[in-house]
Amino acid sequence: MGKISKVSLNYILLIIATAVMLFNNYELTFIVWLLIAFITTEKKYSFQFIKILSCFILILIISILTDLFFYQNNLYYKIRDLAYLLKPILGLLIGYNLSKKMKLKTFDYLIKCGFVLALIHNVLVVITILRFTTLSVAKIRDYCGYFNDFEPYILLLILFNEQFNIVLSKQKKQLYCLIIGVSIFFYLSRTNFIQFVILLLAIKGYLIVNKKSLKIILYVLSFSLIGYSLIYQYNPRRNGKAFDEFLYKIKITPYEAFKTKINEDDWKDFNDNFRSFENIKTFNQVFNGEVQPAITGNGLGATVDIGRRMWTNDGTFVRYYPVLHNAFSTVLLKSGLLGILIYCLSIYYVGEKKFKNLNNSVVNNINLLLFGSAIFLIFSSWVFMGFYLKLDNKSIIIGMLIAYREFIANKLDKRIV
After folding, report:
1. pLDDT digits (tens, 9 = 90+) for 382-414
2. Residue 308 backbone phi and psi in degrees, to 5
3. Which of 28, 45, 53, 99 could form a disulfide with 403 if both were Cys (CB 3.0 to 4.6 A apart)?
4. CA distance 121 to 391
């Protein structure tokens, strides 16, 4: 009975750690995550997990030392940066610690947690639609959330439950798929849709280069190009009806975060391509002709001067940006090219195959899912801050996947590979 109550407590902690994101308050999220990471601390961590964690610790250390020796930035921004740069460390620790305690119950509780989150989100969507009598994409996302990296993972675990040795009745599987699928759709997030496709291709083994996978990827790309061409020809309006709003966001996707020239006097060009504008400003600030900022950045507390006050999703006007949409740009700002190199190394470690000689389907499928996660992290880091985004909770599930893979492998093999 004692063991059951402990596992149940860890499940409650998992729900709290993921549901706190719904409040869109990073200060609250940071405090909750810090407490959960502390009270679930494990005595022992694997070398593989420490390698990933060390990358984020090194980025933080470089940022602190750079500020200490070269800049002495504003104290408020330094404290804020400390909280932001600790986020992936806390998320990975929470996921790893909870999975180590849940053991064989890990996937069961992950799915239940995803179902609860999706249920809450769907209720919020219904309330918002009824309250404002609208299907406006902007309104739904503003009141119900912009995206959720957690739920696509859960939906895929349910769809491929047999491959992950998850026992689900047909009725429960259909119910979970319906509720979570609807929730993912109503986030109306291009990033979530791309995430789902990447992870799906990964689980199916189509991201491993061979003749069959190249053919599948070619089909997916062809289908995407045809779909995009149709949307481009349709020419959806920027401030049109709900359907047009969503299609317009898809239309500008290919260049929104990749443009190299932005007309600041053209409000449409400026707003549609603000992610690119941030990157250009950051690049110009860091690579200002001096060697030190290029190598180690501008340090903890560094900000980018956008040149004008901008309205944020937090409901404030900001001119000096401490963090950007792009994780690579943010890491570059805080810790330079050295930080970028370490961040790329962390993504490599996430996707690195482990225990591949055990010939176990669950371990192999987790390897595939983590490899897909690494591919997605490259994209996510460019457009949505990757692990560093304040609304991100995929660090928790990646920490859980790493720990559960180790648990299964050790149970089978009784050794760390």
Report:
1. 887 889 988 888 999 999 999 999 999 988 766
2. -160, 160
3. 99
4. 14
